[in-house]
Write a structure and sequence with these properties.
The chain has eight helices and two strands, in the order H-H-H-H-E-E-H-H-H-H. With 229 residues, it is mostly helical. It has a two-stranded antiparallel sheet. Strand 1 (102-103) and strand 2 form a beta hairpin.
Length: 229
């Protein structure tokens, strides 16, 4: 999801301002993210597991509830659904009107925008990958899964050379928000000393609870919107 958003910006800049600066900015940001993961990954493995679960649970709740809130508002009609095509056109218009300034042989505007887009979107992905990987004791496997998703999205973008507007982003955001919130509740509670009935077997029950509550909010907000319409 975050890769789709970053890809939209990089495509807009590349097609409007040139690919050299856009790809250089994206590449430098990717190297920065790799360095962050390389530094933080080993550090997380020395934290006691209970403390780690509490911290990880809190971080996942921050990310999960943020995504879930937006997805609920969009699904209920209170917030406009993100349109990658319109974002793409807006970025192209801004890129076309921005002044041209070269530094070290690169278009500085194109480099900076792509660097910021990939770094900011990638940081969220990096933290989620690190937290999941460290809690499950397999950071390399989590990195492989995230890398596979990134490569898939980038390849799709290269093939079509346009924003992936057909991706059901809000549905994905809703699903990811539910999953992150579920794991956040589960691991956060374990870190706080809660013993779940059945251990890991309680995870599906937490998932169903979060899903039902979220769908309930969507239904309630839709009805309120009809009343105020």
């Amino acid at each position: 999801m975050e890769t789709v958003e970053a890809l939209t910006i990089v495509l807009a800049i590349g097609l409007t301002r040139g690919w050299r600066s856009a790809l250089t900015g994206a590449g430098v940001a990717t190297l920065a993210l790799a360095a962050i993961v390389a530094v933080l990954g080993p550090a997380l493995t020395v934290i006691p597991i209970e403390t780690l679960r509490l911290v990880v649970g809190g971080l996942l709740l921050v990310f999960g509830l943020q995504w879930l809130r937006k997805a609920i508002l969009r699904a209920s009609g209170w917030k406009a659904v993100r349109d990658e095509a319109s974002v793409f056109e807006r970025e192209r218009a801004e890129a076309a009107s921005a002044p041209h300034e070269e530094r070290a042989g690169l278009d500085w505007y194109g480099f900076t925008i792509c660097f910021k887009a990939v770094l900011l979107e990638g940081l969220e992905v990096a933290f989620i990958v690190l937290t999941f990987g460290s809690t499950q004791g397999s950071i390399p496997l989590a990195i492989v899964g995230a890398a596979a998703a990134v490569i898939l999205v980038v390849l799709a973008g290269i093939l079509v050379r346009e924003p992936l507007s057909r991706v059901p982003e809000n549905t994905l955001a809703f699903a990811v928000g539910v999953m992150l919130t579920t794991f956040g509740i589960f691991w956060g509670a374990e870190g706080a000393g809660v013993d779940w009935p059945g251990g890991d077997a309680a995870l599906p029950a937490v998932l169903v609870f979060v899903l039902l509550v979220s769908l309930g909010y969507v239904t309630m907000l839709r009805r309120r919107r009809l009343v105020f319409a």
